[in-house]
Prior knowledge:
Strand order of the largest sheet of chain A: 3-2-1-4-8
Order of helices and strands of chain A: EEEHEEEEHEHEEEHHHHEHEH
Oligomer: homodimer
Shape of chain A: globular
Distance between the termini of chain A: 10 Å
Helix content of chain A: 25-40%
Number of strands of chain A: 13
Largest interface: A-B, 42 and 41 residues
Radius of gyration of chain A: 20 Å
Largest sheet of chain A: 5 strands, mixed
Structural class of chain A: alpha/beta
Amino acid sequence: MKPYVIGVDLGGTNTVFGVVDATGNIIQEGSIKTGKYKSAAEFVNAGVECINKIVEPIGGIDNIQGIGIGAPNANYYSGTIEFAPNIPWAHNGIVPLAEMFIRELGIPVRMTNDANAAAMGEKLYGVAKGMKNFIMLTLGTGVGAGIIVNGELVYGHDGFAGELGHICMDRSEDARVCGCGLRGCLETYCSATGVARTAREFLQKTTRPSLLRNKPADKIESLDVFLAAQKGDEIAKEIFDFTGTILGWACADFTAFSSPEAFVFFGGLCKSGDLIMKPIEEAYKKNVMPLFRNKAKFVISSLMDKNAAVLGASALGWV
Amino acid sequence: MKPYVIGVDLGGTNTVFGVVDATGNIIQEGSIKTGKYKSAAEFVNAGVECINKIVEPIGGIDNIQGIGIGAPNANYYSGTIEFAPNIPWAHNGIVPLAEMFIRELGIPVRMTNDANAAAMGEKLYGVAKGMKNFIMLTLGTGVGAGIIVNGELVYGHDGFAGELGHICMDRSEDARVCGCGLRGCLETYCSATGVARTAREFLQKTTRPSLLRNKPADKIESLDVFLAAQKGDEIAKEIFDFTGTILGWACADFTAFSSPEAFVFFGGLCKSGDLIMKPIEEAYKKNVMPLFRNKAKFVISSLMDKNAAVLGASALGWV
């Protein structure tokens, strides 16, 4: 076994490469702009250049056991990125990214989706350390999930399991339209984007005063809702209650599925703390099957300020 | 390794014991009445007597590797039956049934819930042979589930995972009340009891003629709905469409969770064939995330006339 692995957090904006040691310290880091490249080949070339730079201080690529990549729409089984809407060189096709890095670097490369990588990070180095059954929910632009069952990530038959942002929370005709093509998806309510959407809806429904009215409605972001709620703004607090309630309902159904020891929340929205966590837990308690009541823990990621995605992805490098 | 195991299907009415060989043949069988006994101890005594009888022809208990029991409200981790509403000697407490049989027989005894046992049966001997990811749905008095992920049953942190009959399909105020204490549970719509409930509701809502009106409303069973639908009764067919649609919605959400290779359906309702399967598949297709479309298979158990529960439970005996 070689002493280091590389973890890669491939996001819509940046791709961060980190050299990680056996105890989970990121000891070298570099990054490139994901969208700057026209083709996957150009992206891989830039990535390899960045990797070669960060492995220099630790004695070169020969000291790297393997590479783990966390990326949107990544398939663990095939090592491909498939139709990723926010990546220009992968939005309309299937890119065999793992294979391309293997060809250039000659070491094992494994890939999984970003939420799965974050779940691995929590399991190895974060609040879910040692847990064999938990569900990680990433509340960002979308809602992602990494599900751990019997100590392992759930990939499903096709490698795409854990799309919990797309379970249906509203089957009425006027349910929100989701980017995936369905209606009423959890993501349309409980992502940062969903919270902003709720804000616009709530402001339109009433003429009550709100700090949120100080900004043009189409410019409101979830952070504005947080700041307003902190100042006691009633409508902002109602937006959090609404969002948290839907998340609590969803978690109650997830428990019926895999009865996790904990739900781990990750992403900007969680920085709102009790504003979002209290309504989640209240709705959960009311809606979970009595058999499961008071069992699951609700915790916020401990790796949000560290690079959970790089750490999590790096775990795949040891395999 | 000894040549035989015993599988036990502990149901509300009968408990069936079967001696099973290594290729999955039930070569001896016996049964007792589950509810006839006042205490768990009396039940275990009668069970041991029955076991001793059926192992006689194969050379006695020394030729049995272990016993697997499938039972309602059974906990795999603790080997207990907990608050099982339909079992008089286990309805208001925790019965350490596995331990009690071990004490009497001196061989390993493992227990799991009945739907999990059925899933194991399908995996080893039925339509899910060789599948590493599938979901078994048992449509009986209730709706049970056995979930296989990465080749293993999902037990969750507390041993009670897979309660898919209790995910919420209707969050409106007038959603159906479930025996579990919640409202809108899948089970209240898609169990045999749920189908009968739908029949009563549909008949009351309209004055349209129906064969189902030939029976007092409170005596209608799911079988009556099947027989009427077979004869072309419109309301009966609408009842199946309604039931199947809700099941299809649920399966679409289950796919977002574990992306199974197949859904395996078991229980009396499946004998209605296309009447129930077609609306399931149609609703599924419309409601599953496009990423998963046309992937999962929908199949009916191949072990319904054999004893799937005994076979499935017996698998635990080899461990």
